[in-house]
Amino acid sequence: MAEEKHHHHLFHHHKEEEKPVGYGETTTYGETYTGGDGLGTAYTETTAVEYEKPVEEKPVDYEKEVKHHKHHEHLGELGAIAAGAYALHEKHKAGKDPEHAHKHKIEEEVAAAVAVGAGGYAFHEHHEKKEAKKEEEEAHGKKHHHLF
Q: Which residues pair with 26 in a beta bridge?
């Protein structure tokens, strides 16, 4: 019977060009155990674990981060507006189409919930943008002086 190879991977392995950012050299640690059950059956088990040393992080581009959060804030606002408009459209349809009014009411409520969620996301991104601006000012040595 041919010897079968069993691979027990503890981590996902990436090709050289697909390595995640922040990782460099790979170090492999392992051990091999050979044993048997005393009845003539022998086996070999090899365990290998790879550890990657972190590479120094690149400096943070705060301007790019602020731009990113501003873009996402605007997308959240746009989503809230679109979902709100759709909710109003479904409310209008519910009044015009009494045969399917229940369906339109449900769609209206779902659209309203989506609008609230998108608004919350825009609010979240607004605060992330403010935080990124504050980090940028702190990184460049600007300090806020609160006089009152």
A: 52
